[in-house]
Amino acid sequence: MLGPVILAASRSDRMRRLISAAPVTKQVVDRFIPGETVDGIVPIIQDLTSRGLELTMDVVGEDITRPEQAEAARDAYLALIDRLKELELGTRAEMSVKLSMFGQALEGGHELALANVRPVVEAAAAIGTTVTLDAEDHTTLDSMFAIHEELRKDFPQTGCVIQAYLFRTEADARRLADNGSRVRLVKGAYKEPAEVAYQQKHEIDKAYVRVLGILMEGAGYPMIGSHDPRLIAIAQELAYRVGRKLDEYEFQMLYGIRTDEHLRLAAEGHRMRVYTAYGTDWYGYFMRRLAEKPANLRFFLRSMVSKG
Fold first, then answer.
1. % the chain with pLDDT above 90
2. In angstroms, how far is the first alpha carbon of the chain from the final one?
3. Which of 96, 123, 303, 304 has its CA 20 to 30 A from that of 167?
4. Which one from 74, 184, 271, 273 is the annotated catalytic residue?
């Protein structure tokens, strides 16, 4: 059970300094976070879209302690949208945002996050794309869902994320699986207590399938966020059973993980969206990628041994 240990390390300033200082770290981080600036990420966007893939872009960073940092996060997304407009790639790349970056945890955070994210949603809509609100730990979800509902009044294409490991998620899925909704289903990557979340992998997998069934049978647009071959096959079977066409759902996977599978699904005619993060504040994002999958941790440790 290394996942909880790694997630605890993601909140440790001492571990942040230790891992950030390791000479090999940047080489490994680049596997998951291929750029630090808008200019640095443009070649990645162009390469992926040229291969028939779509993207969801995430500017990494969550430790917001001042309102001006939240405004800077807003401006970073607006700069990304301006660049997508210049490249005429607005319809191929959407945005994923964590409301913690927009000030959700600060005093008056709900209103502050809504005020900061709304201009991003407006600008995205203006270039033909949209925004998905990422799920964070369970204490933030009521605020996230309320902001999602408010944004959908003017921008019904605004998406949100639900996490299979939370007990509440089946009820959330039934509420969200309505006409026009866009819902990304993931397993979950935060350390949650047993009072609110399943703790065992087999329980989480079963919950994922149950929630996926609810979304597939609903009138919305499911987004399957998983690298698990078995869950991908189940998603395809469920879509077939309910008569969904290939453009009525999509798969989403992280940049740098199972790249061949990205291309295979796209070649089969599926909509395949690559979750692509960039930015300098990469530590929390990187540590959650290690916690999610033992293979990611093994890759990191092998690299540290071979290059350290």
1. 74
2. 25
3. 96
4. 184
Structure tokens at 38: 């808008």
| Res 32: pLDDT | 80
Q: Which of 30-39, 215-224, 233-242 has the lowest mean pLDDT?
A: 30-39
- Residue 35, annotated ligand binder? no
The answer on whether 225 is annotated among ligand-binding residues is no
Does 293 count as an annotated binding residue? no
Q: Tell me, yes or no, if 11 is annotated catalytic.
A: no
Tell me the whole-structure pTM to 2 decimals: 0.86
Q: What is the DSSP string of 163-221?
A: ETTBTTHHHHHHHH-STT-EEEEE---S---TTTB--SHHHHHHHHHHHHHHHHHSSSE
Choose, from 58, 134, 172, 205, the residue flagged as catalytic: 134
Q: How far is CA 144 from CA 5, 215, 225, in A?
A: 27, 19, 19
Question: Binding site annotation covers 69?
Answer: no
Confirm whether 137 is a catalytic residue. no
AA letter at 178: D
Classify domain 37-278 by CATH architecture.
Alpha-Beta Barrel (3.20)
Q: Where in the chain is the domain with CATH 3.20.20.220?
A: 37-278
Mean pLDDT confidence for 115-131: 98
